[in-house]
């Protein structure tokens, strides 16, 4: 029987209250699955890919910590008056997807892209759409798929 998965939750803190709710949903889903996690924070969604890259590359240099089996990226982008939202949303998604494909990572993508705080809360709330929990579940499902193909999950 395989060891229970160990995940990295990385949370963009630009909208702290929404990020905290996304983490709450993800942590509950991970715990319910019998998995473990470590929680890290970055300033915003643009920094999410770098945090995952740091974690992946750190294993090349330091083996004193358990390797992550999967990654859950959480954050919230609320459209503003300029095109900054579009740039950050596209680069965050592109950066994360590039890492997934380059390093064969199991990723749960929980970065909300919304028009306003009301939409953000409807998606983040654990009593409504619970996108944090959905991202964690997607990550756990991808870890299982990797195991079916016997890909290196460590």
Automatic annotation (TrEMBL):
Pathway(s) per entry: Cofactor biosynthesis; riboflavin biosynthesis; riboflavin from 2-hydroxy-3-oxobutyl phosphate and 5-amino-6-(D-ribitylamino)uracil: step 1/2
One GO biological process term: riboflavin biosynthetic process
EC number(s) per entry: 2.5.1.78
Ribonucleoprotein among keywords: no
Keyword tags: Riboflavin biosynthesis, Transferase
Name of one Pfam family that matches: DMRL_synthase
InterPro entries in the cross-refs: LS, LS/RS, LS/RS_sf
Annotated Gene Ontology cellular component terms: cytosol; riboflavin synthase complex
Binding site for (2S)-2-hydroxy-3-oxobutyl phosphate: 81-82, 123
Described function: Catalyzes the formation of 6,7-dimethyl-8-ribityllumazine by condensation of 5-amino-6-(D-ribitylamino)uracil with 3,4-dihydroxy-2-butanone 4-phosphate. This is the penultimate step in the biosynthesis of riboflavin.
Name the UniProt record assigns to this protein: 6,7-dimethyl-8-ribityllumazine synthase
Source species: Nitrospirillum amazonense
